[in-house]
Here is the input.
Amino acid sequence: GAVVSQHPSRVICKSGTSVKIECRSLDFQATTMFWYRQFPKQSLMLMATSNEGSKATYEQGVEKDKFLINHASLTLSTLTVTSAHPEDSSFYICSAGRPQHFGDGTRLSIL
Amino acid sequence: DQQVKQNSPSLSVQEGRISILNCDYTNSMFDYFLWYKKYPAEGPTFLISISSIKDKNEDGRFTVFLNKSAKHLSLHIVPSQPGDSAVYFCAASADMEYGNKLVFGAGTILRVKS
Here is the structure.
């Protein structure tokens, strides 16, 4: 069964809306979780590393004020896309564990 | 700079035959390698991994081979089944340098024909 759960699976919203995506480790504790983004027909690009109890580490070129990450517990990390615009439309996926197991992803569509 | 490369965008194989997916890497610090399978609109599913201290790891129909001197790894699927049709991603990690962060290849689409 799934060891990493991601919610919601799909979001469609208007430009300017903030969207929160949750990532949970189901049967293990994760001090670190990872957030990826995948554009159509492209590979997974790491956006940031979520660290429980401390600030997330963002990859080069990822706006930390745009993509807010909170890792408040050992089983939950959240990614909030703030003031989303059409160019933020993408497939967002989280992972945790070793080997890394992935959630089923969130398809974000900004109108 | 692509540190992990999957040079074949797609591969087509007959059911029952062997599928061989290839992956090359450039960073000699990578010490842990993984293969994932992905269907559209789903997250990747972990298949098999190998540590740099090994040159082969087997799990059922899946075998991963690692050639450190050539910086090359491959995934063998035998026998291939139609349900294996998916995108396969190779990923690498250098714990000391990246702290379990994975670097992914671009993926190879595998089509298994029945």
